[in-house]
Amino acid sequence: HQTSMAIYLSAGMLAELSARLIAGGYSKDTPAAIAYKVTWPEERIVYCTLENLAATGQENGIRNTALVLVGDVIAAGRTKEQRYERSKLYDPDFETGFRGRNRQKGE
Questions:
Q1: Rounded CA separation 82/72 (Å)
Q2: Eight-state DSSP code of residue 104
Q3: Is 52 in contact with 21 (CB distance < 8 Å)?
């Protein structure tokens, strides 16, 4: 089907994941990303293809606490002009009609 996917709990088995996806019909050059510790201070996102998914994880010391994203959508948004803005939902300065701003003392 070659749809874009988010694959959880697979960072410890990247070689097997890559092999299964390729055997299932994805091409070796399908874009992929390993999103490590997303929203944590040490967050990192590394980009690769299915062919080098395991090597990329190994080179970056990623064996757990990661989400694997696969599909052509990963290639989109790689240039500065195409990037998505990070969600402001949990930003302390974000305010809606249902939630006020998290103001600092003295503001």
A1: 14
A2: P
A3: no
Amino acid at 51: E
- 71: region left, alpha or beta (phi > 0 left; psi from -120 to 50 alpha): left
Model pTM? 0.72
What tokens appear for 1 in the block?
Answer: 């089907």
Q: pLDDT 10s digit of each residue in the chain, 107 long?
A: 778 999 999 999 999 999 999 999 999 999 999 999 988 899 999 999 999 999 999 999 999 989 999 998 887 655 555 555 666 766 777 777 776 666 555 55
For residue 98, CA distances in Å to 36, 76, 91, 102 come to 32, 33, 14, 13
Amino acid at 6: A
